[in-house]
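fyi for ur records
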Amino acid sequence: MYLLGLGLVLLALKYLEIGPVAAWDWWIIAVPFGLAVLWWAWADSSGYTKKKAMERENERRQARIDRNHEALGTIAKKKRR
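which gave:
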């Protein structure tokens, strides 16, 4: 996501001809976009994206369980995972 943001900032600077970026070649401006595509391809093929999504889901699930236990006034003797 950072690479995409960097690419958009560089693109805006190049288009508006601001600072030294105006003199750079277009291929330099396109490099962050290419790196973002490579990152997303690697993240999807390696399972990194799915792993992070599952971690977020498990954290939300555990927070919901803890909230329900607290609302019921029960305290588990041993925390399950």
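The helical segments are 2-15, 26-46, 48-72. thats all i got for now
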